Amino acid sequence: MSWSKHKLIAADAQAVLHELCPVGGGEMPVELLGWRDRRGNLRRAQADYPNGWRLVVHFTLPKGGQQTMSSYTATLKVSAEPSRGAA
Questions:
Q1: List of E strands, the chain
Q2: Which of 6, 12, 32, 68 has the most neighbouring CB atoms within 10 Å?
């Protein structure tokens, strides 16, 4: 399996990603990457949002069929500030 990574245009995908999984709070992804197979078909997309969410979408393309989403994962990166209390 040989895939190549590309930057994708976030404005073109924002509505589709929001409909799929509205984790971005209506904001544009900070970064949107896509991986294509040897034939140029999009196989995976990764969107990173300013609020800490990352959405990864996998696509499948059956022989002679239409490309469809096969799965997606949404993860949230959080960081906590150290507590400032009694020492």
A1: 4-7, 31-36, 42-48, 53-60, 68-76
A2: 32
